[in-house]
Design brief:
heterodimer; A: 6-stranded mixed sheet; 4-stranded antiparallel sheet; 7 helices; 33% helix; globular; B: alpha+beta; 4 strands; elongated
């Protein structure tokens, strides 16, 4: 599903954010991307989301070299990817329902299809009863679950999460991770960037460790 | 409902939401742009208004063309025909030297020159009346042609008041164009800065929409609707200011205008100016917003 081949990213011609990164993530696989702040996790995710292009090497998702995409093709690619942020980044002027429906409206889903999908997504994150609420009245954990519902509502083949549990307590973090595990069991490829060792080590998934822009370890979680 | 209509309805709703969230800023901006755009509009109104005012007297330029003494009748008739065929001449009147002497002798104190009838020193002449709508450049061209003509001894040219006035209007026009260009540039910069500030405020939203796969068109739409609303309102404000200033100027000049032309009560308002100002307002606002959003989207990559 995701393939990094000798990928390097250099900013301003001198600052090397990534260097010779190689890995593959099979369809339906879930992996953690760990490393200290500034190690290169966010750059790697930005490459997958098409927000950056590699200075050298190739980033392929579902066989497509992302450096060949631009404009409308890049937008179409992003519609097939789900993104979860550390800060859920919800639109406060919209209701929970409308926030979750946003990717569907952007993708041009019909108005008859949207309610079914939003209902299903909210049900998956146990927020069916909050559909009409404003994000302002939700707790941090609930907001993050709305963000997750928004990321999966269009049934993406790939889900990318950037520190999704960074603002949550351990109990909520575990709940969010359980959700990711369920999505992975449904065949979604998931890459979770996190620096929380406890979260990573509690789950039996592949772990990619990045340090100073280099992939230094690629193996399974400790508790497997 | 059709997806296209839904998207646009949503964009209009978003645009209105943004506007009402920053209503004071929006109203100040509308007033600022209205006043700025009224400056070139009013200058153009004065310029076009002045150019359209034609004094009732001396509306036609004239030239007295003195012919050479020994000019044959055929040559004179040929010159008359050539002049009468020109589109900028209205009337050619032949003034024989005997008639000129007679007219001259009728003036106070010049009666004795009637005795020179047998040995008249005056040349024959053609009185050329130019058309009412004559243009200074074309009249000058005819004068130059006549001066260079071998059949012509000399000539006197009396440009109409309108032609003299047109030179002044032309000079004022250049001044107005310069000021107008500067003001329009100022408007563009002001709109761009405000649109850019709006876009910076919405930075996170634009990034979110980009990551969710929204096309540039989709992201730009609410900003462009807001810019259009801003442009329309600023254009209307500018039109109101111009009309008001025109009324004030007209009332201040009422007596002068009547002296110029008894039919004139005020400087006539030119509809083209209002349409032009409103169009510039919408266009400037639209371009400013479009550039600002595009810059943000480009910066994302």
């Amino acid at each position: 599903m995701i393939e990094f081949e000798s990928v390097a990213k250099v900013y301003d011609g001198q600052r090397e954010a990534l260097s010779d990164v190689n890995f593959r993530l099979a369809p339906g696989e879930m992996a953690f991307l760990t490393g200290h702040s500034g190690a290169g996790k966010s750059t790697l995710l930005r490459l997958i989301l098409g927000l950056e292009t590699a200075s050298s090497g190739a980033v392929r998702v579902a066989g497509t070299d992302l450096s060949t995409l631009s404009g409308e093709k890049l937008a179409r690619y992003r519609r097939r990817v789900g993104v979860v942020f550390q800060d859920p980044n919800l639109e406060e002027d919209l209701s929970v329902y409308d926030n979750v429906a946003l990717p569907l409206r952007i993708s041009g889903f019909s108005e008859s299809e949207i309610p079914k999908r939003v209902k299903a997504a909210l049900s998956r994150v146990d927020l069916s009863d909050q559909a009409n609420a404003s994000p302002r009245v939700l707790s941090g954990g609930q907001q993050q679950r709305v963000g997750i519902a928004r990321a999966i509502v269009h049934r993406p083949a790939l889900l990318v999460a950037d520190e999704p549990t960074g603002n949550l307590d351990p109990e909520l973090s575990a709940r969010v991770m359980r959700m990711f595990t369920q999505f992975q069991q449904l065949g979604v490829t998931i890459l979770v960037a996190t620096h929380e060792r406890a979260v990573v080590e509690s789950l039996p998934f592949r772990r990619l460790v990045i340090e100073q822009g280099r992939l230094v370890s690629d193996g399974m979680g400790a508790n497997r | 409902m059709n997806r296209w209509i839904l998207d646009h309805t949503q964009a209009i709703h978003d645009a209105w939401k943004r506007t009402s969230d920053r209503l004071t800023q929006f109203i100040v901006l509308v007033c600022l742009l209205g006043i700025l755009l009224a400056i070139p509009g009013w200058l153009a109104q004065i310029w076009i208004g002045m150019a359209s005012l034609v004094p009732e007297d001396a509306v036609q330029s004239e030239a007295i063309v003195f012919l050479k003494q020994d000019l044959e009748v055929e040559a004179r008739i040929d010159l008359e025909r050539t002049l009468s065929e020109m589109p900028d001449t209205d009337q050619i009147i032949f003034v024989p030297r005997s008639a000129a002497l007679e007219q001259l002798s009728k003036q106070d104190g010049l009666e004795p020159i009637a005795d020179l009838k047998a040995n008249n020193p005056l040349p024959d002449a053609l009185r050329v009346k130019f058309s009412v709508q004559g243009v200074e450049a074309r009249e000058n061209q005819i004068i130059e042609t006549l001066v260079a003509d071998r059949r012509v001894l000399s000539l006197r040219y009396y440009p109409s008041t309108r032609i003299q006035y047109a030179s002044l209007v032309e000079m004022l026009g250049f001044l107005g164009i310069g000021l107008s260009v500067l003001t329009v540039i100022g408007v563009l910069m002001a709109v761009f800065l405000v649109a850019a500030a709006d876009v910076v405020d919405d930075r996170r939203r634009i990034e979110l929409y980009t990551l969710l796969g929204a096309s540039r068109r989709f992201i730009r739409r609410p900003y462009l609707y807001r810019a259009t609303l801003l442009g329309v309102l600023a254009g209307l404000s500018a039109c109101l200011v111009i009309t008001f200033l025109n009324e004030v100027l007209s009332s201040a000049l009422a007596s002068n205008l009547k002296a110029l032309d008894s039919r004139l009560e005020n400087i006539p308002m030119d509809g083209r100016i209002l349409i032009g100002v409103a169009s510039i307002a919408v266009l400037a606002s639209w371009v400013g917003a479009e550039r600002a959003v595009n810059r943000r989207l480009n910066a994302l990559h």
